[in-house]
Amino acid sequence: MFGEPEDVEGECNARLYLGDNYGDGTCTIRCQQDLGHEGKHRETFEREGEPVEITWVVDESAVCTLCEKRDQTHMLTDGKCCFKCTKCGGFKRLYRQHEGSDECDECVHQSGGEAFDAF
Fold first, then answer.
1. What is the residue-level pLDDT of the chain in tens, covering all 119 positions?
2. C-alpha angle 32/2/50, rounded to 5°?
3. Are 64 and 82 in contact, with CB atoms under 8 Å apart?
4. CA 72 – CA 82 distance, rounded (Å)
5. How many helices (H) and strands (E) would you count in the chain?
């Protein structure tokens, strides 16, 4: 969705505008709580002299246990954002894994197997 969201009847519809702080099309929020805290992550700051508090559950800065990269664009599944293809050896996103195989969908398709439509 691009642009201003439409108001929903019966809801508050207040807005909080957050900027793209690194020029990558996203706005990064960083938890300020103590290491190992319980409950939701939280960042607080002031806007026009009033406190603003943002809370969330999932840590999107987690590092993949296989490729050891930060995964900011896809949710991690059991600590993994990818798998290592047994044929080409490349790290591929989990959604590219061929069903019932340790090979990526591209390798199965190149070998004459039927690719599934995951894209």
1. 567 788 999 989 888 888 877 777 778 888 999 988 899 999 999 999 999 999 988 777 767 766 776 655 555 566 666 777 888 877 777 666 777 778 777 777 777 666 554 43
2. 35
3. yes
4. 13
5. 1, 4
CA 8 – CA 114 distance, rounded (Å): 45
CA–CA separation, 83 and 65 (whole Å): 10
Tokens describing residue 53:
């508090």
- Integer CA distances (angstroms), 84 to 3, 89, 90, in order: 38, 6, 6
- The first and second tokens of residue 40, run together, are 């939701």
Whether 77 contacts 94, CB under 8 Å = yes
Dist. CA 54–CA 31, nearest whole Å? 9
HSE of 109, CA atoms in CB hemisphere, 13 A = 10
